[in-house]
Amino acid sequence: MNVPLMNVPLMNVPLMNVPFNDLKREALLLKDRINDLVNTTFYEKNDFILGEEVKKFETNFSKYIGTKYCLGVGNGTDALEIAVNSLALDNEDEIIVQANTYIATCLSVVNNNKKLKLVDVNKDTYQLDLDLLEKNITNKTKVLIIVHLTGSCCNMDKLMEIVEKNNILLIEDCAQCHGAYFKDGRLGTYGILSTFSFYPGKNLGAFGDGGAICMNDIGLYEKILKIRNNGSNIKYDHEIFGRNSRLDTIQAGILNIKLSHLDENNEKRRKHTNLYKELLCHNENIVFPKIEDNCIPVYHLFMIRVKKRDELKTYLEDRGVSVGIHYPICIPKAKCFKDKFVDNFLNSEELSEEILSLPMFPDLKREEIEYVCNLLVKFYQ
Question: Do 117 and 96 touch, CB atoms closer than 8 A?
């Protein structure tokens, strides 16, 4: 039986170093398999770019997500930019993105010379506000890029009704939601395209950069196949304008190994979240994001909303706890978008001042979570 934290003596807790995300712990468990992969791929087969392991991973990952096709690319930003590029939009077409996301989502729009339109988020879920979305759709709106922030999602039934009613194409930014579900379908199966990042800190992370695009449309598959390889399927025969964005063979091999552990690791993240909530649920100073009904999240990030956020961050870091802010500057306030957006994005701006991301990774230890929670309680006492 767990002792309520409010009754635990806090003054003499020994200092402990708690990483935000310790990639070494999982890597060491897979060390032998990965070493065998490197020896076989590099030294025996000399297989470096778009090799056998890439094809194998593309097949495995498309089956895992539930789409017909998957194409590996250089990174998650490339995945987004290529996805937008593949839709053959006019430069005056609008693409809607939520106001609290990583800037790569927005760069995929502006780097393709399309019109970026931001919409605020729901303050309780941190996901796109679907009522505001409907109000912001115009006859120029052609695409919505929905970001499944933290590994959760909005009400996907309602979202699909909106995009279908307005004849809008949906791209899912799945950089934080590898393996998450809404009802019976994995996130990444709702849009015409879905993009993934395999940055090392992701739920499914490589040992370097990597990304992927999933789809069911054969025409988009064949087009993206060319775009990622300088517009060519045959060497020196460049049919369209493309770019160099190919998934390394060794990264694909590592992802193949780690994919077999993804569901297990996601379940560990959910258990860690339950422990955080169990230990902190009686503290009125700490607010958890609401999870949409029918969503099974994967907690790429575990965010809380707090007052005195910056003071708390310093307090935790001074006591060995590594934390993050996702994101300290919301998109409308970014310097590169200065004076571009005149609307108010009150929820996104408020969240950027109050959100704190606590340590979260599969091999996080119970005593580390308890230590973090003890410090949180002590701070607000």
Answer: yes
